[in-house]
């Protein structure tokens, strides 16, 4: 069952990416967009170049979701870093 958010391009489904928020209709996780933007310093246009199946409005909506849920998503980023060290 998919959870609705106030972000039309964000979907949360326990069957997709373990329930991690994703750009709706894709398997691109919001956490991955946040990493590309915040940590790799890629612009939204550069993110689209790396993921040509995405649209600019999807990336902007994903970033909006990230900023509204920043503490939770940053925690996930740190947890994932520890797992891969």
The major beta sheet can be summarized as: 2 strands, antiparallel
- Tell me the structural class: mainly alpha
Approximate helicity band? 40-55%
Element string (H = helix, E = strand): EEHHHH
What is the terminal separation in angstroms?
Answer: 33 Å
Which regions have little confidence, pLDDT < 50, spanning 5+ residues?
Answer: none
Any idea what the radius of gyration is?
12 Å
Strand fraction equals: under 5%
What does this structure look like?
- This protein has 85 residues and is mainly alpha-helical.
- 52% of the residues lie in helices and 5% in strands.
- The chain has helices spanning 30-39, 44-50, 56-68, 70-83, and strands at 10-11, 22-23.
- A two-stranded antiparallel ribbon has the order 1-2.
- Helix 1 (30-39) packs across helix 3 and helix 1 packs across helix 4.
- The radius of gyration is 12 Å and the shape is globular.
- The N and C termini lie far apart (33 Å).
């Amino acid at each position: 069952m998919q959870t609705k958010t106030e972000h039309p391009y964000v979907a949360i489904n326990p069957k997709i990416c373990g329930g991690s928020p994703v750009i709706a209709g894709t398997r691109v996780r919001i956490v991955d967009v946040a990493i590309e933007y915040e940590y790799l310093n890629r612009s939204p246009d550069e993110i689209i170049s790396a993921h040509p199946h995405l649209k600019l409005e999807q990336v902007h909506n994903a970033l909006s979701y990230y900023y509204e849920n920043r503490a939770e998503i940053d925690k996930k980023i740190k947890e994932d870093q520890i797992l891969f060290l």
